[in-house]
Design a protein that fits this description.
Chain lengths: 223, 232
Amino acid sequence: MGVTETIIIYGIIGATVAAAIWLSSADESSPLDAIVHAALWPLFAPSLLEPRAESKPKPARARQRPHAEQRVRKVEAGLLAALEELDGAPEDVLRPEFNRIRGLMDSLDAMAARRDDMRSMLAESQFDRGLAKARLEELERDPDADRARLESVRNRIKHIDRLEQMHEALSADVDRTLLKLEETTSQIRLLRFADSPAEEVSDLVRDITATVEGLSEGLMTPA
Amino acid sequence: MTAREATIGMQDLTDDSEAPTMFELLLDDGRELDRVILDPKNYQKTLRRLLLISVLGLGGFAALVGLIWPASGLPGAASGVHPSIWAPVVLIGAFLTAKVVCLPSFYFYTQIAGLDAPFRLIVAQSLRVQARSSVVLLGVTPFYAALALASHIDVLGTGNTMTPAMIGVALPFIVGLSGVSSLYRSFRRMVDELPITNESRVKFVMGLVLCWSAAFSAVAPVALYRYAEMFV
């Protein structure tokens, strides 16, 4: 292939790249810019291969969370929407924060699922405190009652008490976390007016992630 | 100007007189230039500005070299087209061609070094090196002009007119070291922001920059020779 053929093919590819850049950013390119793009297309072609920064990124959808209550889904959607509204932070910087928030919501979802499990267990007759207390009183009134059975019912009541305490503590933690997340959402929305929103967003998200991770670890450690 | 543009650091460089120009950013060579280069929204505008500065710097210097070329007695001194016209074409064409040829290598060296930089960043950084070198070259041009004038009027009485022309050919490469050091400092700063794929590599930024320099140093002289052959 001679020089002439090379120049022709170079020119065709250059014209294609220049046209593609012009189509993707019609309000910015001037004819001179188009000539530069066509003449030096190897330098400008990579910009066509990456996702456009001007177009809105795909909306970050909240995952389907069968266990989460309405409030968790709403908070997640609000937080992700607040991050999307941030114009000043580059997409490369925000992407890890989206992932971190999803991880955070997975942890919160797990906490909410545990709380719901506890609530379901407490609704069963086996964990009904009133029934267990009534049974204990009945056995205490009976002089022929077996000590082992008495002990068993007393232990069952202790377990029910423990389960109720855990349920209350977990509910309070979930509520507290959701409130913190709602507060963080409003803070992130204010960051639109900050000079370096990316850094502050990272700090905020790291802060809330550490809180939720601490709570999750507390649940896993045995009493 | 909207409130968004007024408060965010990444301002459009054309519509605010208080925002630093690309020339000032290159002279300063700090984090602000890194932010401009990393910003995907103004990527094409950034590239055009870096290209413009590169072309102006190389072209201006090459035109000066072309002015003294006829007196040097080197090949091309008596060609049909005056050297002050073909010298800028040769220098700009050679350096930009070498940049384009080396881009894939730059990208792979960066990946091998463990830095997951997008290809557009590689392009922007390579043009940054050239633009920075061109800015320094513009600064060196008056000194070179003095040297060229002195040899033209034979101040030292040596009758040597070839050396200034040879120095003129070598100077863009020597001054290019300032672009390389700018690249090194820039990547050192970006290490905190870009994803790292292999954390075990020690001093990988130094190795990365040396590879970039070696690749360009191998290709650019060849490109320069081939372009010059068209006119010599």
